[in-house]
Amino acid sequence: MTPFKRRQLLLQNMRELDSKGINCLSCPGYCCSFTCNSMQITPLEAFDIVSSIELTNQLVQTLQETADKYRLWQDPPGNGLSHYTRRYYTCPFFDHKPGGCLLPPEVKPYGCLGFNPQIEKVSQEGLCHSDQDLLEKRDQFNPTWENEENQKIKEKFNINWDKKPIPIALLELIKKEILYNVSGVLV
């Protein structure tokens, strides 16, 4: 199943909102910056991104700098519940302009695609939200296939996590993919 097909429901929703003038084009990017962003992605989402972008030294450096600046390598302390507090960070693909994501929509993280403005020409923080019903509906689209693909990637690249912040997920996958491609087996 293609990355686009897995995101089709979310992309359709964004197109419908955009047709009503509800989009990110007037917003300075609160949800992409350290003020609000704590996005985490699965191995499959990371694989989609790594497979679709040009892997340059500059990109790897930006991912590394983001991870270091926001201490994303360290798991945040737990809050005593089953979930831990996420770390906030500015997305390395945010170019600090309204509507400024550098990733193609067909490989953006599901959570990013499901987080949309609620009004036209949004320019203030707090006027967007994550459409959890839509994200859950997307999750139910083909859960067995997606779970199997995540598991295959985890096994192939010796990954032991289900979700990580974008920079960490990409750096780990890039490093493992390079090792895999060089040797044919993971070191």
Describe the model.
This protein is mainly alpha-helical. It has one domain. It contains seven helices and four strands; from the N terminus they run αβαααββααβα. The strands form two sheets. The protein has a two-stranded antiparallel sheet with strand order 1-4. It has a two-stranded antiparallel ribbon with strand order 2-3. Helix 2 packs across helix 7 (166-183) and helix 3 crosses helix 7. 26% of the residues are buried.
Q: In a few lines, what is going on in this structure?
A:
This protein is 45% helix and 5% strand.
Question: What strand line-up does the widest sheet have?
Answer: 1-4
Total helices: the number is 7
Shape: globular
Low-pLDDT ranges: 182-187
Tally of domains = 1
What integer is the average pLDDT? 86
**What is the percentage of strand-forming residues?**
5-15%
Order of helices and strands: HEHHHEEHHEH
The largest sheet, given as strand count, sense and whether it forms a barrel, is:
2 strands, antiparallel
Structural class: mainly alpha
The end-to-end span amounts to 29 Å
What's the total number of strands? 4
- Spatial extent as radius of gyration: 17 Å
Helix proportion range: 40-55%
